[in-house]
Amino acid sequence: MKAMNTAVFQSILRRTKRHVIGHKIASGVVAVLLVTGGYFGYRSLAGDDGEIRYVLAAAERGTLVVSVSGSGQVSSSNQVDVKPKASGDIIAVAVENGGEVRAGALLLQLDARNAQKAVRDAETNLESVRIALRKLEQPADTLSLLQAENSLTQSRNDLAKAYEDGFNAVSDAFLDLPTIMTGLNDILFSNTLSSTGGQWNIDAYMNAVLSYDERARQYRDDALAKYQAARAAYDKNFERYKATSRLAGEAQIEALVDETYATTKAVAEAVKSTTNLIQFYKDRLAERTLKPSAVADTHLASLGTYTGDANAHLSGLLSIRDSIPSTKRAIAERAEALEDLKRGADPLDLESSRLTVKQRENALLDARENLANYSVRAPFDGIVAKVNAKKGDSASSGTAVVTLIAKQRLAEIALNEVDVAKAKVGQKVTLTFDAVEGLSITGEVAEIDAIGTVTQGVVTYTVKIALDTQDERIKPGMSVSAAIVTDAKQDVLMVPNSAVKQQNDTAYVEITASENQTPQRQTVQVGLSNDTMTEIISGLNEGDRIVTQTITQTTTQNQPQQNTGIRIPGITGGGGGGVRGGGGFGR
Question: What GO terms fall under cellular component here (predicted)?
Answer without folding.
Answer: cell envelope; membrane
